[in-house]
Amino acid sequence: MMFVLMLMYSVCSSDGLSWAWRKLPCDVMFSNRSVLMDCSGRSLKEIPKNLLWNSTELIFSHNEIRTLPKDAFWNLTNVTRINLRKNLLQLKKDSRVFSRLAQLKTLQLDNNNISAFPRDLPPGLQTLSLNSNHIQNIGPLHFEGMTKLEVLKLNENCYRSVKCKIIIHNKTFRNVHLTVLELSKNRLQKIPPGLPRSLQNLSLLLNRIEYIDAFVLQNQTNLRLLDLSGNCPFCFNAPFQCTPCQTANRSLEIHSDAFSGLVQLQDLRLSGNSLTTINPSWFQNLTTLKYLYLSFNSLVREFESGQFFSVLPRVEIVDFSYNNPSQTIYQRLKLSTGFSSLKSLQTLHLEGYIFSNLCEEDLVPLFALKNLSVLNLGVNFLQNVNLSVFRNFQNLSLISLSDNRLMFTGHTRMRCKRQGLSYQDQDDHREGPYIHTDQEFRRYPPFTKHECLMTGPVLDLSSNSIFHINPLYFTGAEDVTCLNLSFNFIASYFNGTEFNHFPKLKYLDLSNNRVYMHSQLAFRELKELEVLDLSHNKHYFEVAGVRHSLAFLKNLEFLRVLNLSWNEINTLTNKTLDSASLNELQFQGNRLDIMWRKNQEFKNLFKNLSNLTRLDISYNKLCQIPEDIFSCFPQTLTYLSVSRNTLTYFEWEQLRYLPRLEVLDLSKNKLTQVTEKLSKHTSSLKVLDLSSNLIARLKPSFLQDDRSLLTLNLAFNRLTQVSDASLSSGSGHSLRLLHLERNPIHCTCDLLDFILWLKKSDTVLPHLATDVLCDLPEAKRGHPMVDLDIENACINNIIAQILYVLTSSIIIIMLSAIITVHMFYWDISYIYNFCRAKIKSHHSNADCTYDAFVIYDTSDSAVEEWVFNHLCFELEERGGRVHPLCLAERDWTPGTSVMDNLNHSVHRSRKSIFVMTEGLVRSGIFKMAAFLAQQRLLEEGVDVMVLVLLEPVLRRSRILNLRRCLCGHSVLEWPGNPAAKDWFWQNLRNAIRFECHGVQSKIFTNYFSGR
After folding, report:
1. Each residue of 598-610: pLDDT tens digit?
2. What does the alpha-carbon distance between residue 87 and residue 95 come to, in Å, rounded to a whole number?
3. How confident is the prediction for the chain on average, in pLDDT?
4. Where is the secretion signal located (predicted)?
5. HSE value, Cβ hemisphere, 13 Å, CA-based, for 220
6. Residue 966: in which H helix or E strand, if any?
7. Of 268, 391, 593, 983, which is most buried by a Cβ count within 10 Å?
8. Could you report the per-residue pLDDT of 186-207, keeping only the tens digit for each?
9. What does the alpha-carbon distance between residue 238 and residue 131 come to, in Å, rounded to a whole number?
10. Is residue 720 part of a domain?
């Protein structure tokens, strides 16, 4: 009591402990004096260090823990139960990890890699579970001091490997007061001797025990359950390595007095042992036996003779299934009159007998059993039965005839009279199953729906060959309230007469058939029908040109649940479903997308279901919901599922049409955003599931003023930031449960407000410390959000903000510059050179009459044409000319010598342009002009030569190559690509306008200056 008061005080006085709990990778639950920490399924690699010191129960199952250090539980003095199932544990010898836990009562280490029995276990341990490990040696030393151990489970420690052999030494359990011992699936060849007398449950399932003598169980007077199933199974079709027993008849040999000392035994399991005979002396002293399992043997003849039934007066449940391993097909079922001795029998399982016809006289031995309530005759390949035979039973609540070949089309009574008890061809053999898969096979057959059982008497005719419902063959079942006809081939028209003999029917299962609904009279005879399952009947709904009518619903006044799932319904003859009683409609796996898109009338499909509270329209391939479609939904809806569609947008405004809606499931769609303010559209919603969508952000006022929402699931989305403003209602109301698992959270300072809100809030975030992980920053990717000290890192961070702005600006500028240069390189170059020319170009000297003197081969008409039509046009007509060009044919003075004209032209022009062709190179005027240009270079220190290579010349000239290296901009080649001509002319203008000094190249300067 004092502990509870202290705990309550610490919780109420500070939120520090609450925040510490949130950082735990576990769910913490309190109940009276117990503190449960559930850390299961968190992908943990080790035991957390910050476990609550007052924990009483620890669950670490389904993780990836490999080792347990000595101090793993050093401060947990109050722990009573530890669950470490399904990990990768390899316990070290003498680890003493559990020895300090004085209060430990239960230790579960199943499904690990433990190869040796753990030592130094606490003496107060009561339950030890080591199933599915690799322990092969067990001796008395392992249990020294463990006087309080009651339950020991060592199943499946030596099962997978053929060479594996488990050794249990003599007197191993001598000083242990066990009540439960499980040694199943260990390849044991005999029952361990020296078992404690206190034993109540002994499980030796699926071992290799071949013989049980008279003394090994003689002292087990307290034993209540003995499981010896599967020790000598039939090995055909066995899905495991199976070796037949080496006994005389390949079956388990049991001494006649083997069970004589088990005077308190209640549950005996001998299934799967190839037994061919039953010795009545086995049961002679079993006066308290209630459950007897003899399935998967070969005891058909024993059931016919029935000599052992008289010694089983108190047996309540018997399983005689699959006792015909040869799969011989019998014409009739033959039961011994000894069955009438089973006065206490309540459940009889008789599957796999394999007979064709069931007649009234076949079941006579069972008619006197007043307590018999469950009769299971499934998987018998039964072809004919008269249901009226079951009228003779006084208390039947379930008749299972599933997995047979019933058709209900023949004359069953006549066949019963004609056919005797003769056998069919004995050579017709089939291989059957090997052992019953349900170890807890008790009162009811598997797969029997609980909802069906709750209505009353059940008739199960599922998985047969029924293709038509003929009322003549369903007489005698007037008391049945649940009828299962699923997995047949029924294609009846259903005109309101098929079920006349089922006046009390409340539950009808017609799923997985080929039902054709066209008449409004269908099922009208079922006045009390409450549940109708028509799922998986898509055959006729996919056929075009036939009627698809569900008008019969208005005749079913008490119908509460209707399942129309997985029918691919894309059209209906009647445009509305009419029912004043229907509460739940399952409409998954249909095609509402087609119905709502192609026909506006189908918008009212659910409008007339005036009492509907639950509607599931998932798996309908909806990519959008029509506008105002919810206005055509019943206002009584409290649950609506639109999950597993392909919705990209949801009109939240439509929720105003559903004033009572409490649960809305929109999971597994493709939604990218949520409403700005949920409370504007609904005031009743309690659960909202938005998991597995594409939502990247929440609106700041998402839950503002909301007073109803309790659970919000945002797991598996694309949320990078979570704001406290989005999740805070501001009205004193807060969420109870918030799922944020598996979102790419950006653990930056923008998350600070959410962390502060979380510290003060009572909202529970499942798996907060293991599955709410950071995606950014890169260094913290995969780390739990709550492990980062965001609060201390982000408060008063002015310098960090300044650095952030500065670095962001630099990065943005650099990126912008790089992208701009990459995309607009030519434009920038042009603008740069243009501005440079405008700013740095020198003023024309007074002595310069011409911009350039053009020297070319005047004898070549093509060159002459290029000079006048292209060169002169570009340099004189365009580009901002200052002085004209000097051309020999145009500007030289007639009568003056060539040498004087040439000298005058070179010295009165800023530059000399040599249009290089083979003809010019061979001419004398080229050499004279070049000498004059060189003279200006020597006298004035100005390079005036500009070489325009109109065609390839002087390829091996060292002078030309040297000029390319020293002043490459004065050597230009006429481009072959027309797109580059503008660039050529601009470079030529630059070469003419800019003054070029004699020393231009940095290489040249560095060489002669010694730098």
Report:
1. 888 999 999 999 9
2. 18
3. 87
4. 1-16
5. 29
6. helix 958-966
7. 268
8. 999 999 999 999 999 999 999 9
9. 22
10. yes
